Amino acid sequence: MQAHNHKESCNEHKLQAGLNRIAKGKYAEDAASRYIVKELGWDIVDRNWRCKAGEIDLVARDGEWLVFIEVRSRSAAGSRFGSAREAISPRKQHQVRKLAELYMYSKRLTEVRIRCDAIVVTLESTVNKVDYSYHLEHIRQAF
């Protein structure tokens, strides 16, 4: 009976960690969206665009450019998985480029200049149970 309870608490811990990861990811995407609109003055065209091949975090309009943005977050305390910037692997870069092509095709967009940027959000600390202090790094033409 005790082992069963321990397993349940481990599963509850994994569920809580997963929810925490999702919440942090959403917080980072929200921070990136605010930055794009308020600081850069760009328009958000799409957010969390999905197809069978994956998801594009943000699509924005920067003048004549259609910008596909990969948002990555990590905690400042460090992660055993590396920094947020390191998390944009060559495989992920290829996937974002492929998704950009699929997006263009699905929206019937031609003759549009495109680029792929990355926004890296490092979550510094929890201000309260909802907000974080964070550092945001925008990498233009990241890949």
From TrEMBL:
| A Pfam match | UPF0102
Q: Does the keyword Hydrolase apply?
A: yes
Q: Which UniProt keywords apply?
A: Endonuclease, Hydrolase, Nuclease
Q: Which InterPro entries match?
A: Restrct_endonuc-II-like (IPR011335), tRNA_endonuc-like_dom_sf (IPR011856), UPF0102_YraN-like (IPR003509)
The answer to whether keyword Transcription applies is no
Residue ranges of coiled coil: none
Q: Which domain of life is it from?
A: Bacteria
Example GO molecular function: nucleic acid binding
Membership in a protein family = Belongs to the UPF0102 family.
Q: Which HAMAP family match?
A: UPF0102
Q: Which PANTHER family match?
A: UPF0102 PROTEIN YRAN (PTHR34039:SF1)
* Protein name in UniProt: UPF0102 protein SAMN06295960_0602
